[in-house]
Write a structure and sequence with these properties.
The complex is a heterodimer of chains A (465) and B (532).
Chain A: E1 2-3, E2 6-7, H1 17-27, H2 58-69, E3 79-80, H3 93-99, H4 102-105, H5 116-133, E4 137-138, H6 145-160, E5 164-168, H7 173-183, E6 188-192, H8 203-209, E7 214-220, H9 232-241, E8 245-250, E9 268-272, E10 288-292, H10 296-299, E11 307-311, E12 318-322, H11 329-332, H12 345-382, E13 388-389, E14 399-403, H13 411-420, E15 423-424, E16 427-428, E17 439-443, H14 450-464
Parallel strand pairs in A: 3-15, 5-6, 5-7, 7-8, 8-9
Antiparallel strand pairs in A: 1-2, 4-10, 9-10, 11-12, 13-14, 14-17, 16-17
Chain B: H1 36-42, H2 66-78, H3 100-106, H4 109-112, H5 124-141, E1 145-147, H6 153-170, E2 179-183, H7 188-196, E3 200-204, H8 214-220, E4 225-231, H9 243-252, E5 256-260, E6 280-284, E7 301-305, E8 317-320, E9 326-329, H10 346-383, E10 403-406, H11 408-414, H12 418-425, E11 445-448, H13 456-475, H14 477-481, H15 507-517
Parallel strand pairs in B: 2-3, 2-4, 4-5, 5-6
Antiparallel strand pairs in B: 1-7, 6-7, 8-9, 10-11
Helix pairs in contact in B: 5-10, 6-7
Classes of the chains: A alpha/beta (465), B alpha/beta (532).
Chain lengths: 465, 532
């Protein structure tokens, strides 16, 4: 890049000789290195870093990078049945269109007047999630669902001034790990046993552990295994009678059909927004949210930016502002109990677009269609010799467990064989839940037609034969 | 009619809230139909859900036809000043050009449509990319191993706090070593995240040079010291030249040193965290490494450690599989708990890798030097601007990538505050600058970071806007205090978002509480001048 004409690169215009000379002259120094006098000489790198040769041509760079990632097999050219916290759904073209807009993609810390549109989109994200979960306060997106649950259960502990957290036994290993790390110094976490038959939390075990030390009870609906909890109101009553708060985790895509947790007594609701019009991006599509009732004792404990609407100067005008920033780590610094920062707002904008497109009918249809496809897949798979679907008599959404115990094959072997047939099998649970033996979590969504499901069933039959 | 020389007028669509665009029966998109055979085989599963599982009424979402949804959000995008459309010099944010080619690559199926658990045999390209970038980051930083799991700078710094905790815990020292030292001009996350991780945090205040001195550090160090966590240059753009001594003193006391390189842009190829003695560091790929800021994310922090801390990194790690491919190492060992689900914001990793590959070693150094060059050009011009002062006159070093200016003099002479200037800037077609993080030790602060991407003409446009506002402050202060005039919306009632009776975070909250906005019984709000 550097020759007699100096260093000229499209991303660094003022490194070129003409502007460089002009700026040095204006500043009054001979050389750029003169501007680094505050950095002790002995700390400075001598010469250049040892990096791969540059590819300043966009064409050459694309060939290089696309050749590397071209080695991936994608869920577009393979049939994918893996979910477990990141799910393949249809992403409407308009979601990609809007999240790709440079104005949003490259915005950042702009405020009420410079980034009015970004703020309105975030307020609408909060509003539409609020309708799904049945609550009036929703924060801007969190890093992911695990981060949302971390914040929610510790919020509940602070509100109740108690240290105990009870987690349903049906949350993912990643989630358990995230919670364990985050709550290590401030909470005592215990697990609620699952009822063996239903796969849902055992209410007797919940009651026995619900002492006066418990501040938060957390379960997911549908849970990690796809199972739907219908006793939400009963659980809320039990939890509230013990003076604790109920935190419920949801897949918002289920809420076109499933009950809104706010309506059955959840105090704080967490969820994943990736299913709402966001590509999986190898897990990078994940983002979360927190919602609650509109009470000061809840709002003052939110860690993240909250976007409030406010009236403008002229009649009918409105604008938006970041509310009560004194509750966040930006202001509290060393007094912080949680932290705020850049999260995943672009995916929040994508989710707002998705929910605006889907409307009440789209959300009801997609959820009820997934219920039907999942049921169909589970029943067909359960007919195969050597495997069974766990909790087949329970209601489940999008995911279910296949137990391969009687097949004599491991999940790893099954998945390797399925891959040969162009299928990504379910998540291997044998490490995450050793008590389930050789079991896998399978995911069926609205992208799967009968042919796709039948192809999975036929492939499984072939693999197991 | 525009009220400034640029003739700029922001788009002002007066676009209604999406919920108010609803028309009964309208649809934006139709989900895939359920095959008739499936429906026949299983019936209406939703209708047969157990009582209590089903929602009573459909969610009250808007019903809007497709093009109107598109038009709505396109209009909102037009009322947003991203870097793609205008000059943004927001301090501490390292705004720069995010190359479009990288975005186009990332949006292809080979990245966008990957499932994180689809099996390593089918993810070889992704793992190779992460492995290569890991090696590159090691060379840039002088560290030995990286993770890209944290989804933002703050989460990266939190990861560092957890690594320090794990290290002392492994040595049985955690009960004894419970203090982290930081500085007042490091990012708030350098104080907040160790507090979240359970540490007591000691904040060093700046001396007359604008940064903490060695004596202040010595006074803070004790046998309780677990570590040092700071930025350098700090959010003021000033490099603390005592940094090596800081690191050595903390090491001698038995603590670890974490280098928050959120402000790493001026040091690429110039200074390496490892050579400075740090044990760990973190970079923001969405800032320094050009991955787009995404309206406040998706971010990604690259957290790097020296070899002796490798075992504490969160799992999985990307490793060579011994036969020319790559694997994910899930072996937990002494690794800290998961920071983020799966393996992180890998699309940001792809963009950062592409950026480094485009520039190479010479290019990275040019980025750093040009960011410093541009900043000192802005400083040279800002020095002569009426009402503007540069804090810590005793410090004669050139600044690195940003400067924290003060409008204290302007405020004293005209009553115009830095927030007034910020609001007025939008009228000139540029993104506003940021005042300061908390604590606001500099009165009427104003932090400018031009970065390496802008042309001289673009910097001059920003300077012209600030000059015009300065002139206006001294000639027509009332006007300077009344902005913006040409923005996408008019001035809001800023008490509403602070008032529990009035704030509204959802449409349903807004509908319920709007009558309070005009109530005579509104409570008196102590306005909080929060920093970002």
């Amino acid at each position: 890049m550097s020759d007699d004409n100096g260093f000229i690169h499209p991303y660094v215009p003022n490194a070129a000789p003409v502007p460089l000379r002009r700026l040095l002259k204006e500043i009054g120094v001979d050389n750029v290195t003169d501007l680094y006098v505050s950095v002790p000489e002995e700390l400075q790198v001598k010469g250049l870093l040892n990096l791969p040769d540059a590819l300043p041509s966009e064409h050459d760079l694309r060939r290089h990078v696309e050749a590397i990632i071209g080695k991936n097999l994608s869920c577009r050219d393979h049939l994918n049945f893996c979910g477990a916290g990141c799910w393949q759904h249809y992403v409407p073209a308009i979601c990609d269109e809007i999240t790709g807009r440079g104005e949003f993609l490259t915005a950042y810390g702009g405020g009420t007047y410079s980034d009015h549109g970004k703020n309105q989109a975030m307020f609408e994200f909060q509003s539409l999630i609020g309708e799904l979960v049945g609550l009036e306060v929703v924060g801007t997106p969190s890093y992911d669902m695990g981060a949302a649950v971390n914040s929610a259960v510790t919020m509940a502990c602070r509100i109740t001034a108690r240290r105990g957290v009870l987690l349903s036994g049906a949350v993912s290993g990643d989630m358990r790990s995230q919670i364990s790390g985050f709550t290590k110094m401030v909470a005592d976490v215990d697990t609620i046993a699952l009822d063996a038959a239903s796969g849902l939390i055992d209410l007797d075990d919940l009651k026995s552990k619900l002492t006066s030390d418990i501040g938060a009870v957390y379960f997911e609906n549908p849970n990690y295994f796809g199972l739907i909890e219908s006793r939400g109101a009963e659980i809320a009553e039990i939890v509230h009678a013990a003076g604790a708060l109920l935190v419920v985790g949801v897949d918002p895509l289920s809420l076109g059909v499933l009950a809104a947790p706010g309506d059955y007594g959840a105090d704080i609701v967490c969820g994943q927004i990736q299913p709402l019009g966001i590509h999986m991006y190898g897990g990078g599509g994940c983002a979360g949210f927190i919602a609650s009732r509109d009470e000061e004792r809840f709002v003052s404990e939110y860690p993240m930016i909250l976007m409030s609407i406010a009236p403008g100067a002229e009649e009918g005008d409105f604008g938006f502002a970041w509310s009560t920033m004194q509750r966040t780590s930006y202001d509290k610094r060393h007094d912080s109990e949680d932290y705020a920062g850049t999260t995943q707002w672009l995916w929040g904008i994508g989710a707002a677009v998705y929910l605006s497109l889907m409307g009440p009918r789209g959300m009801e249809e997609v959820a009820s269609g997934i219920l039907q496809r999942t049921r169909y897949a589970a029943e067909r798979i359960n007919e195969l010799k050597g495997i069974s679907v766990a909790h087949l008599d329970s209601a489940f959404f999008k995911e279910f467990i296949i137990d391969f115990a009687d097949s004599g094959k491991s999940v790893a072997e099954v998945n390797a064989a399925l891959l040969v047939n162009g299928i990504f099998g379910g998540k291997d649970l044998s490490g995450e839940f050793p008590e389930f033996g050789q079991s896998a979590l399978y995911c069926v969504t609205e992208i799967h037609g009968k042919k796709d499901i039948d192809r999975l069933v036929d492939s499984l039959a072939e693999v197991l034969s | 009619m525009s009220t400034n020389k640029t003739g700029f007028q922001a788009a002002r669509w007066n676009e209604a809230l999406i919920s108010e665009l609803s028309e009964e029966g309208a649809r934006g998109i139709v989900p895939p139909a359920v095959d008739a055979e499936i429906a026949a085989a299983v019936g209406d599963v939703a209708a047969s859900l157990p009582p209590g599982a089903r929602r009573a009424a459909p969610p009250d979402l808007p019903e809007v036809t497709q093009h109107r949804v598109l038009r709505h959000f396109l209009r909102l995008s037009q009322m947003c000043m991203g870097f793609d459309v205008t000059t943004d010099m927001m301090g501490t944010c390292t705004m720069k050009y995010s190359p479009k080619a990288h975005e186009h690559i990332a949006r292809g199926a080979k990245l966008a449509d990957l499932h994180p658990l689809q099996g390593v045999d089918s993810l070889q390209g992704l793992l190779e990319l992460m492995y290569r970038f890991n090696r590159i980051m090691c060379e840039i930083s002088g560290m030995d191993e990286f993770t890209f799991q944290p989804a933002s700078g703050a989460q990266g710094i939190y990861t560092n706090a957890c690594l320090i905790r794990a290290y002392h815990e492994s040595r049985g020292d955690l009960g004894k070593r419970d203090e982290i030292i930081t500085t007042s001009f490091s990012h708030p996350a350098d104080a907040a995240t160790p507090a979240v991780a359970g540490f007591k945090v000691i904040t060093l205040m700046p001396g007359e040079m604008g940064f903490a001195g060695v004596d202040a550090l010595k006074a803070a160090i004790s046998d309780r010291t677990a570590g040092l966590m700071l930025t350098n240059p700090e959010d003021t753009g000033q490099y603390n030249p005592n940094i090596r001594q800081f690191v050595d003193l903390v090491h001698e006391a038995g603590g670890l040193c974490a280098y928050d390189q959120a402000n790493g842009n001026p040091l690429l190829g110039v200074v390496r965290a490892g050579d400075t003695g740090f044990d760990m560091c973190q970079f923001n790929l969405h800032k320094t490494f050009s991955a787009p800021h995404g309206s406040l994310g998706m971010g990604c922090a690259a957290v790097g450690v020296k070899d002796f801390l490798r075992k504490f990194l969160p799992r999985p790690l990307v490793a060579e599989d011994g036969s020319g491919g790559y694997r994910l190492d899930y072996d937990q060992g002494e690794g800290i708990d998961k920071i983020r689900a799966f393996i992180g914001n890998v699309h940001a990793v792809l963009k950062a890798y592409s950026w480094v590959m485009s520039l190479g070693a010479e290019g990275l150094r040019a980025v750093a030097e040009t960011a410093v060059l541009n900043n000192n050009y802005m400083l040279t011009k800002m020095r002569g601007m009426r009402g503007v002062t540069i804090p810590w006159p005793a410090n004669n070093y050139p600044k690195l990538e940003q400067v924290r200016y003060s409008f204290e003099q302007m405020f004293a002479e005209t009553g115009v505050t830095s927030h007034d200037v910020i609001d007025r800037m939008v009228d000139f077609g540029v993104q506003h600058c940021m005042p300061s993080h908390v604590p606001m030790l500099v009165p009427e602060p104003f932090t400018v970071e031009p970065g390496e991407s802008l042309t001289v003409a673009e910097m001059d446009q920003m300077l012209a806007a600030l000059q015009a506002i300065s002139d206006e402050a001294y000639s027509d202060a009332e006007k300077a205090q009344g902005g913006p005039y040409n923005a996408s919306t008019t001035r809001i009632d800023g008490d509403v978002p602070e008032d529990p009776d009035c704030w509204a975070f959802t449409y349903r909250g807004y509908q319920r509480k709007k009558p309070m906005w005009t109530s005579e019984n509104r409570r008196k709000i102590e306005r909080h001048d929060g920093g970002y």
